[in-house]
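User: My instructor asked us to take a sequence, write out its structure as tokens, and then describe one feature of it. I'm not sure where to start. Here is the sequence I was given:
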Amino acid sequence: MSTAAADLRTIATTWVDLNDALGAPAVLGGFGRGLSAYLAATNAIDAEELEARGHRAAALRLLERDPAQLGDRPIPIRLQVYATMRTVEAALVGCASAVAEYVQRPPMAMPAPRRAAYAATRAERLVWEDHARRVQAAQDDAADPRRWKWTGAAPSAPYTALWLLARIEGKPGPFRPLQTAQHRHVAAVAAEARHRIEQALDTGAETAELARPCPDCGGTIKVYGGAGTSPLANCAQCGGVWSELGAVA
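Assistant: Let's start with the prediction itself. The structure tokens for your sequence are:
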């Protein structure tokens, strides 16, 4: 399976996870923040200040839920996930529309209409039957559900990803084969879309530098994680290693 095909399959199969994550509570801090907090332990706030912050946060949450409060209400979805879904959908639909302009064959021409008449002979009956078959074939070709066409709301991202996958794999239909330039375009769009989805779901491997220097030597700390694994931090200068549970080495 090509990289583009694998990316498109991943987009189609993980879209349900994005829908689930849309209403899930956000993980505050994000990638590597647990390590950053641990490494900032030298500036830790005492227990009383933490308790006071907790009380202030609870009061703010109660105020936000007060129906008498004027102004905008908190949006009950994760905006980062929502933005990722809209961006990926727009990119895939734009890509499919561009590809369809090159590879989708125009519908078969409808045969010229014939004046209604009674078929008096077998030869005339065969002519009418052939004309009816050609009309039906043209109608079926124009209505082929494999064609890229839509009105109103755009197709969903999973549908569009699978449509592009069929073009990558050369599945049958009213299409010409993809050219190299079109294949590269699809591959680039699919790779970027998959990357955005993995970032939103935190399922892709990532590397990031923490803004806070190493507490031991002041060196640069890099965090490695994602793809379902717990992040680890490593100092490039002294070699210190940390997990979210504390120092490892």
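For the description part of your assignment, you could build on this observation: Residues 28-33, 41-46 have pLDDT under 50 and may be disordered. Try explaining in your own words what that tells you about the chain.
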